[in-house]
């Protein structure tokens, strides 16, 4: 990770869970991390914790609603003005609503598409353009995907969510192909965790049902996914790790 010291990384959804863990690890490795979320106060608290811990990098909080393209573009403009641009983009933000295909609300489907697919694509485009205009040829775009982007579980509540994650799988491979055709060494990676003990299930279900899901087996922790991010970034520049699939040992699907 030494070659990334002092470089700029954007982490979306950095206020809690995987995003917070990734942001903290990158700061620990000396990166300038732009952490964005709607709840910017949590990122401000995390930034203070990183500073108190004596980490060599810095976490810069950005308030951004990723379902709003104007806010995303404004954030990238601010990053350009204040920090020149983005060298690493971690598209972590994602959400799920319990909206089955046969009875779900269109508003829930649209929200999942806006955040899980469109915001990821917009951030990817803007990050690439930021790298291109500064002649950054060794950047990295990492999409935090899901095992739900590789198989469909028999749970109607997450079928539309799974469709958005299948889109992330396709988008990451498409991105890799376009980067290759552009004759750049910017790399693209998809990281697909299984069940991770975060606030994700609590937001999808009620607290009791979420707790039951997390206590049945030994789940992945957010730091496990953060470690996979630093592993991917640490690979030699000529090595592209295209897809990382990880899940708890005890997880069946």
Secondary structure layout:
Layout (H helix, E strand, L loop, with lengths): L7 E5 L4 H12 L3 E6 L2 H13 L5 E6 L5 H15 L4 E4 L14 H28 L6 E5 L14 H23 L5 E7 L6 H5 L2 H9 L6 H13 L8 E4 L7
Parallel strand pairs: 1-2, 1-4, 2-3, 4-5, 5-6, 6-7
Helix pairs in contact: 1-2, 1-8, 3-4, 4-5
Number of strands: 7
CATH architectural label = 3-Layer(aba) Sandwich
Give the C-alpha Rg. Answer: 17 Å
The biggest sheet amounts to: 7 strands, parallel
SSE class:
alpha/beta
Spatial arrangement of strands, main beta sheet? 3-2-1-4-5-6-7
Overall tally of structural domains: 1
What is the CATH superfamily label? Answer: NAD(P)-binding Rossmann-like Domain
- The level-1 CATH class: Alpha Beta
Features:
8 helices, 253 residues, single chain, alpha/beta, Rossmann fold
Describe, in plain words, how this protein is organized in 3D.
- This protein has 253 residues and is of the alpha/beta class.
- It has one domain: Rossmann fold, CATH 3.40.50.
- Helix content is 47%, strand content 15%.
- The protein has eight helices and seven strands, in the order βαβαβαβαβαβαααβ.
- Helix 1 packs parallel to helix 2, helix 3 packs parallel to helix 4 and helix 4 runs parallel beside helix 5.
- The model has no long low-confidence stretch (mean pLDDT 95).
């Amino acid at each position: 990770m030494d070659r990334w010291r002092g470089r700029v990384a954007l982490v979306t959804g950095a206020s809690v869970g995987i995003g917070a863990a990734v942001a903290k690890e990158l700061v620990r490795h000396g990166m300038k991390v732009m952490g964005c979320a709607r709840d910017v106060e949590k990122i401000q608290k995390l930034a203070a914790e990183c500073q108190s811990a004596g980490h060599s990098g810095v976490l810069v909080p950005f308030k951004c609603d990723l379902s709003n393209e104007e806010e995303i573009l404004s954030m990238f403009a601010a990053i350009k003005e204040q920090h020149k641009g983005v060298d690493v983009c971690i598209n972590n933000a994602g959400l799920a609503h319990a909206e089955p295909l046969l009875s779900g609300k269109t508003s829930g489907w649209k929200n999942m598409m806006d955040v899980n697919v469109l915001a990821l694509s917009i951030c990817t485009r803007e990050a690439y353009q930021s790298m291109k205009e500064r002649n950054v040829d060794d950047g990295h775009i990492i999409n935090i995907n899901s095992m739900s982007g590789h198989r469909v579980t028999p749970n109607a509540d997450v079928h539309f969510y799974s469709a958005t994650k299948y889109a992330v799988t396709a988008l990451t491979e498409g991105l890799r192909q376009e980067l290759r055709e552009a004759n750049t060494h910017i790399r693209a990676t998809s990281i697909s965790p299984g069940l991770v003990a975060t606030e994700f299930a609590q937001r999808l279900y009620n607290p009791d049902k979420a707790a039951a899901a997390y206590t049945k087996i030994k789940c992945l922790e957010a730091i496990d996914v953060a470690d996979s991010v630093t592993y991917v970034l640490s690979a030699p520049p000529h090595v592209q790790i295209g897809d990382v699939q990880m899940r708890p040992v005890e997880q069946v699907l």
